[in-house]
Every structure is written in C-alpha cells, then in structure tokens.
Design goal:
This protein has helices at residues 2-32, 39-65, 67-74, 76-79, 83-112, 116-137. The protein is an all-alpha fold. It has a domain at 2-54 and 96-137.
Length: 154
C-alpha cells in the first residue's frame, strides 16, 4: 500500500504544479487585461485549491505510514541530524502544509473580493506564493536537500 500511495503522491504533484501554473497565468492575464471574473475563472480557482487539498490528504496518509517518518519520530535526536530523514520527517511536510494553507487562504480571499480585478489579483499573488513554497519543498531529482526520482513507477 505504501509504495502505491507514494507513486500516486509523486504523480499527482505534476497535476498540482500544472494547475497552479495554469491558475497563476490565467489570473495574471485576467488581472492585467481587466477581464470580468466569470464562472470558468471561479472553477479554476476552486479546482486548483481542491487538487492541492487532495495532494495534502495523500501526503498526510503517507506521513503516518512512512518508514522514514516512523524512524524520525522514534529516533528524533539522532534523526534530526540526518538530512534526508529530517527533510521528510519535518521540513517537507511542514512546508507543504504551509503551501496548501497559503493556497486555501488565497482561494477563499479571492472568492470574497468585491471586484473582478481584486479577485484575479488575489488569486495570482497567493497562488504564486503557494507555488514558490511547493517548488522549494519538492524532493526534486536535482535537489541539494534530498533527491528522489521525478517519476515513480506504480
């Protein structure tokens, strides 16, 4: 079960990244061109946040069944000095939770803004901050913190 969830979590990250990129570009275009915030724009906002929540849920399940995290939690004082163990036991999870909170706040704020320009601007800024946090916290194959494959087999 762990390996299947890990591969699924790794695959869905691409959907999270694609939806965030699409939503940010879409929001900046709407903001700068002073377009009306329509139903499709609201759907982009909603589904981007929903995809991030699905990924967070998978990540939380993985956190509690991961052998790396289990080692981290049961050997904290030794594990905190091991870069890879610390990354997955503490850094990756806390940063990704932070990113999803930022995306969620941005989505909620954008939904409640009174003008179309403010909706687009709020969505663009908060989602861009969330994307930055996500990009810095993914265990990329080239990451100096810890390295994982960009694509995992099921």
């Amino acid at each position: 079960m762990y390996s299947i969830l890990l591969a699924l979590h790794s695959s869905i990250r691409w959907l999270v990244l694609a939806s965030l990129l699409f939503a940010i570009v879409h929001a900046y275009r709407g903001w700068l061109s002073k377009r009306e915030f329509r139903g499709f724009d609201n759907s982009v906002r909603h589904w981007t946040a929903t995809i991030a929540h699905i990924q967070l849920t998978l990540g939380l399940v993985l956190y509690f069944i991961s052998p790396i995290v289990d080692y981290f939690l049961h050997n904290f004082w030794n594990a905190i000095h091991q870069r890879e163990i610390r990354f997955f036991g503490m850094e990756h999870s806390s940063m990704m939770i932070t990113a999803v909170v930022v995306i969620t706040i941005g989505s909620a704020k954008a939904k409640r803004r009174p003008t179309d320009a403010e909706k687009f601007r709020t969505m663009a800024i908060w989602f861009a901050i969330g994307l930055f946090i996500v990009l810095t916290s993914i265990p990329w194959s080239f990451s100096p913190l810890t390295s994982r494959p960009n694509f995992r087999a099921f």
